[in-house]
## 1
Amino acid sequence: MKNYQLFFFAVAVCLLMASMKVSAQCCAAGNPLSIAPEVQRSGKNELKVSALYRLSASDTYYDVDRPIDISYVDQSGFHYTELGIEYGFLEHLSFKVELGYFMSKFETYLNPDFDDKVARGLADMNLIGRVDLLRQPSKSLHLSATAGIKLPVGLFDLTVDNVRFPVQLQPSSGSFRYHGGLVLAKGLFNRKLTSISGVNIEYSKRIQSKNFDYKYGTVYNLFVGGAYKLGSGLSAILQFQGEFRAQSKRENEQLVEASGGTILSVVPQINYSFDRGWNAHMAFSVPLYRHYNSIQLGSKYAFSLFISKTKNLKASAFLISDKTEGLN
Amino acid sequence: MRNLIKYPIVLIFIGILVFACKEKSEDIGPVSDEIRIISLEASFRNIRAWDTTSITVVAEGENLQYYWEANHGDIKGSGTSVKYAAGNCCIGMNIITCRVFNDSGHVEDTIQIRVRHYFEGK
């Protein structure tokens, strides 16, 4: 089987698994956290345009770490898309902007008297600066840092039929979020295997709209894994991820009892680079261990498909210039 | 070519920052003296997490419409009577606001519902 056939076969299998029972990562306002970190950033003068689709599903309440039968939400989840543009301004510095859109963010209920709720709309804009702290090609060592801010440019205080949706169904986060991270990649065994590890932290400012007064807890995300080259352009990645979320706060600094916790997940991924600058990346995240504070609707799985095209603008300019000179 | 890309992107970012930082205010119109809320009542004012209470408003006025919001928890339904429920995420005293409005303006009232822990019993 050719590489691209293998990649699209894997995509089809994951989509099939996802469609068998859609239920979603529960649930917070604004852009969801990434389940697969981007290791490769744009080099100098390179422009990368990307599109992301993410599906997340939940259908089970957990009391700390064990399922509990609560007849309320049947299914909760989202279908999320994101457009990204990244440009390498300097040899070691690139800048990226991402704009998210929820095609649907939904809750269905077991109680037949309750209508399903579906929110759609623009989410947050994420501005990210990425810089190489260490790059040693001879040792296949690469350490990069990211820092960014999520701007609540999207839809918040969404109202349908004159009823305001709850905060967890709002497409935009309604407040600024600051994030930063480190990613370390090290080639091993003649670069056949690359180990990837890193950390991300996201801090949310307080949401203070007319209706909501809420502050999400800070999220710490640790990941470690390895990417194995299967063939030309095709890599398989196995990553383990730990998400540690502090408790949220509501008005008067009251801690929200049922918020925050720890989720350890396994995230198998497949990456395919093809046709000069095209890249497709697919990830599937399944929790292995969870420990919530109090009773919460727990994530069942998440899936993402990321496609990007990178182009070196300077090389293109030279090409145009050469052609123009040729015409003259 | 590079600058043609770079500068518009920088300008767009600045524009977005300014837009995002701008305070967004909701225009709900003037307070009306042609509308009067007679009552705003709940079937239960103290509920266990994920249980439901019905909230009903009675108001006087012409061509009235009803708007509902909760600072924590979910509101189901619309019109003069809705249902409210909230999980363990929303333990404590929560405020449900009902705004009654028509072409002349609006009036609003609130009701407080206490949500108890799921294991505190019915």
## 2
Amino acid sequence: MKASIGTQGLILNEPLLWEKGAKGRSGFSLPRRDVERCAMDKKVIGEAPNFPDLSEVDVIRHYTRLSQWNFGVDTGMYPLGSCTMKYNPKTNERQAALAGFAGAHPLLPARLSQGMLQLLFELERYLAEITGMDAVSLQPAAGAHGELAGMLICHAYHRQRGSACTKILIPDTAHGTNPASASLCGFQSIPLKSGPRGVLDPADIAALMDEQTAGIMVTNPNTLGLFEENIRQVAAIVHAKGGLVYCDGANMNAVMGIVDMQAIGVDILHLNLHKTFSTPHGGGGPGSGPVCVIKALERFLPVPRIVKQKGKYALAENFPDTVGKLHAFFGNVGVQLKAYSYIRSMGPENLKRASQMAVLNANYIKEKLKGTYHLPHDRPCMHECVFTDKHQSVYKVSTLDIAKRLMDYGFHPPTIYFPLVVSGAIMVEPTETEPKENLDSFVEAMLAIAAEARENPELLHRAPMTPKLNRLDETGAARNPCLSD
Amino acid sequence: MLSTVGSRDLDDLFSTLPADCRRTRPLKLPEALTEWELNRHMDTLAGRQATAPHYKVFMGAGSYDHYIPASVSYLLGRSEFSTAYTPYQPEISQGTLQAIYEYQTLVTRLLGMDVANASMYDGASALAEALLMAIRITHRTTVAVSRAIHPLYRRVVQTYLRPTGYEVIELDYGSDGRTDLSGVDKVSELAAVALQSPNFFGCIEDLQSAAQTAHADGKTLLVACFTEPLAFGLIKSPGRQDADIACGEGQSLGIPRSFGGPGLGMFAAKRAFVRSMPGRLVGQTTDRQGRRGFVLTLATREQHIRREKATSNICSNQGLCATTAAMYMASLGGTGLQELAQLNYDKCTYLQQSLQRAGLKLPFAAPTFNEFVVTFPAGFDRTYQRLLKRKIVAGLALDEYYPELAGSYLLCVTETLAKEDLDGLVKEVAA
């Protein structure tokens, strides 16, 4: 094998913010005082917060050192399944930072915000076209917020029809956010077992679906990386009982230009702009989770909606059936701008090509590793594939050990122990932005780890060895929570 | 690669999809732009926006214009922070984790609370989640919300609480611009009383009295909300006044306005309620060699473990914005934050006094921070339009949100407006 990219370098220690600095320092150029100081009412005045005083160079070095303890997409391959950690083009950052956008106040009269409103209006149309849905609201601030918007729409739809729905079907492969979002709308989750082929069996839906069930929440492609091939029959069964089909679009990266979500029976879909549309995830956000619906559900979308009248853009509130507002303003607009920039840079052919390459890359890894790692569903996958630690567990090596050892080889580990239906899952999503040589290096690393598992399992239990810290005591952290200094 | 996977071509990769699931029509989208074409297009769109410094924007209402040091923007360019995912693998995410731990600590110190989470989407959703948390803790189903809370936040609260049938009672504001608490003790079984301070009118509420009123039955919680955390450089923190949950918008702390988002939902509580809190928490621990490190913790509250019984459905939050706020707070320091808050207070007071001298009426007498309500003479809307043409945005008209305040405007002043800008506005509106 070629030399691994994993290595060690000079990483510096850095204390907590308040363990450095000295009283009276400041890293902020205080604006000129051009009015007189006035005393505030004594009854409301408090003492200054106990913050450390630091100089600019103190702050810069602090965060520069911290950043070097992190692994991002810009550091290396990040095959985190279901998270679509593709490369984030830097032109997107330039566009979102333009003074006209970054400095825009959300409540300005519409005629002073025509540039922004035009852009957001067009982005809604692009997302509708890419998904095959009819109408879009950009307001949800993240994927789970988009799910909540979707469930609120589902709830409002049934209430208007006078149907007293109390339940919703959720496959066991669903993201944990799905049942949590449904329960915010008062729906009881009815778990659905996926069939032996890893996809939904229409007979199971038919057995559970009744008039008290609001619909189904599916993820397609699902979290096993498989396309729900019976989705049209599933949708027909749900629709026949008056239910709606909600699709978690977290995995849309596999099917842009390939699948029309409305044509396969989806009524409501959310997207993750920070996955499919290349906006950076920021170490935990901000994301953006637009909700897309069919024409019949458009009237329930969050307000305000962006409308175009006589060539001018405006914000409209007059939608009496709306679920209301989910965000004080219009969601994470800065993130939406980056997704717009991505779609305009890519164009229609390259978006489809991105999905094709994402699927090719995942299948390539699947084929290269399936003899060595157990592959529960050995058939063509979409943008991700799920292995397990079954072959390694005989040497007392677990998925966790494999994941930690990958760090030493210079890779971010895949998603592990998810989906829950696969014991010891290792979920690999390479994305389209990794070239073949990176996929080959990843495969080599995984094969080398499998060999280590056979020959020197103790090495894997000790991993990782190259990061600044080794395994952390998570049990202790939860038993005696220390959440601030 | 195609031969390895056994496909003839790229289309063949999808041959297992049923034919009736395949899209037949190509995507109808604009053709790809080069980087330079995109730059020109975006420059044109951005150029149609009215922003400072070309416009003098006296508008706050939950979105504030503050200076952002170049050092903060520069640090955010460290893509090890921005291109990472949620720190599920702590060994290679210590940068994010320590930064968030420090953010949580700075937030507890700013708000005077015991524990803070890693962030929520924005101030409005943070308030809605705080009320749901109070409902979970008290097992009660009614909340009382002040009408002096940001009207758009109250609409988000309605969206979150309506489907499950929880009741929201509104508390009116009094003649001084602060919440009238006299109705609270007439309502029994309240889960929470929610106030904003400084409130939507800029008035500083007496949270201490509100806490006493709320706590009278031994169970009702006080939720203290805010849109302008810079105020806590100067005024008493919610924690010092016995608030049980403090939540609000942190956009002021180094985050650009960006048409209202991304901002930062700040969320903190008393220690006793930590296990009922929504959102992610970072905790301190050690590695196998006993070295200090940080991990995501108390995940048993969260949806990926508890699924439908989770304290919230939130997963992605506003992590990078929380990091930004920490960088900004670290740059200011305690001394700098107090000085900056004082300067904001002084500038706003200067404008208030100048307007009063010019004969304009300020309907609310309570002390304010950064924002205040002014009542203009009838027909001011024409002046407002005239000022827009002169690139002055003279605040936010309140009639849309408070019909009884027709003719009144909410004005905001921060450190980014100079004395001459303030004098200019006074001259225009007095004319």
